[in-house]
Amino acid sequence: MKEKKVPSPFATLWGWAELYHTSLYSSVVLAILGVGCNMLAYFCVAAIIRLLLAGANINACWPWCGLMLAGYVGKALFLARSTALSHTATYHTLRDLRKCLLSKLSRVPMGTILGTPSGQYKTTIVDRVEGMEPTLAHLIPEMTSNLLVPLAITVYIFMLDWRMGLASLVTPVLGLFIVAQSGKTYGARWQGAVETGRRMTNAIVEYVGGIQVVKAFSQSAGSYKKYARAVEDNAQYFVDWMHANQKYMASWQSILPAVLVTVLPTGLLLWNGGSLAAGNFLTIIVLSLGLTGPLIAAMSFVDELAVVGTNVGEITKILDAPELNRPEQPVPIAGNAVQLKGVSFTYGKTDAEVIHDISLDIPPGTVTALVGPSGSGKSTMAKLIAGFWDVTAGTITLGGINLKEIPLAQLNQQIAYVSQDNYLFDRTIRENIRMGRPEATDAEVEAVSKAAGCDSFIRALAHGYDTLCGSGGGHLSGGEKQRISIARAMLKDAPIVILDEATASIDPENEALIQRAISALTKGKTLIVIAHHLGTIVNADNIVVVDKGRIAAQGKQAELQESCPLYALMWQAYLGSRDAA
Ligand SMILES: Nc1ncnc2c1ncn2[C@@H]1O[C@H](COP(=O)(O)OP(=O)(O)OP(=O)(O)O)[C@@H](O)[C@H]1O
Questions:
Q1: Predicted model pTM
Q2: Which residue among 379, 498, 530 is best mutated to probe the pocket of ligand 1, counting the most ligand atoms within 8 A of its Cβ?
Q3: Which of 91, 119, 339, 532 has the maximal Cβ count within 10 Å?
Q4: Hey, which residues does 497 pair with through a beta bridge?
Q5: Considering just the CA atoms, what is the radius of gyration of the chain in Å?
Q6: Are residues 309 and 345 in the same domain?
Q7: Domain containing 530 — which CATH number?
Q8: Complex ipTM, two decimals?
């Protein structure tokens, strides 16, 4: 069987920049012209030396001085235009790539995202993508031009005298050989640097994210240790790398520019022997001096050559992650009945199964409550119904259609998922609510806010609906956040609402407000509620008791109290806690 050819990192990167190839090619051509103009100075000096040796009048030299000036002006103009083109193409490519990565995250299963430290996504989408900038904007035009122009000069030296041509090649070739030797380990070294950097980022993100716990439990020393070790390891890695690489760096940086070491003695011997004219000798010396600048400039991009594989690899890992496989075109769905048939589910390949062979009917317009001990699988069932994960076995259908056959956007329109920790973005309250339906008018946003019982507290804020929520909704109280999340879900007006009831004890006044908001949200809808307070679901059409990933019993409140010992126990516990409150 023919093995599938994996494209090289450069081919992959070049493919990402496909829309901007014309600009990138143009920037290479302009960079070559720019470096060529810069080299013109050396040709002009050589020409003037030849004129002076031939006893020419000083006036014959002025045109060469003029040409040299034109060369410098040309260099500035060509390189400025080349840089502008390559940077515009690069930043548009990076923008497209970041959009692609973010849109990809919305299509991969939740499990893939939750199983990856959030710092890792930040590092790839921000840092690794940014790491492409030197490659696209600088390496492609600048390295190409800084290699091609010296190559052309070397050919010219060979044309003047092939022996001097060979002499001018000795130290550059030796220098390039050393660069190649050090470059052999660079890719692996950089991969290691990415790993230590990732560990450091994850430790920092975890430390900052958990700072409240750290402060509350006075564990700053312990938690700080993990963070400090990651920072220490990162620094040590780069110090070790620098030490290992230093001998190569020092060697090529001193050998590569030392062209005169071979050119001068060879030229002297040949001139002395009468086989090299003084004019050619001096011209070659001047041109040899001009060779080294561009070559050193080109070598400064060798690091970029080595890191491109790692950067492209990290980005490709996200872009190639398996997606929830869904069709693109909407499908006709008959009604909003939800049905689970023989559903089993395992979070990860190495995890134990948490939902075992569950079957459940949820008729449209009914209230179904999922109750059960902590860890029994209620939230998992709710998230499977919302399509966050694919079931491992069995099927879940909506209106008779398997969820796997419904496009994600269409399923999303049918279901509003309101969890306890509904995230608010650091945007205005109005924008956060409008996420439920982006085309909603201000009047509609305010109408749902009234219905969800948050209009009055929002208006009391200094900037009303234009108040910023803070990152994660940090500028608002828990109850306020929850009511805004409910308003957002109301605006979406999905026929099925999945509600994860708050477990935290809320003060009675807030609880009453939230309950009122929930009633408004769920009126006339199919409601699936994960109930932690049994008092709120006594009138549910069907109470499903979940225990250890299975349905232990289901029915109405009165039936379950009689027939399900686990439910009877939970009810007693609820009554006890209510009386104690
Ligand atoms: N992302 C995850 N990866 C691996 N296992 C998980 C994940 N989320 C939950 N679990 C496991 O699945 C089981 C069911 O968890 P689930 O959150 O569904 O329970 P729950 O009944 O909703 O609990 P609670 O009432 O405490 O919220 C638990 O054993 C839990 O440890």
A1: 0.68
A2: 379
A3: 119
A4: 416, 527
A5: 35
A6: no
A7: 3.40.50.300
A8: 0.97
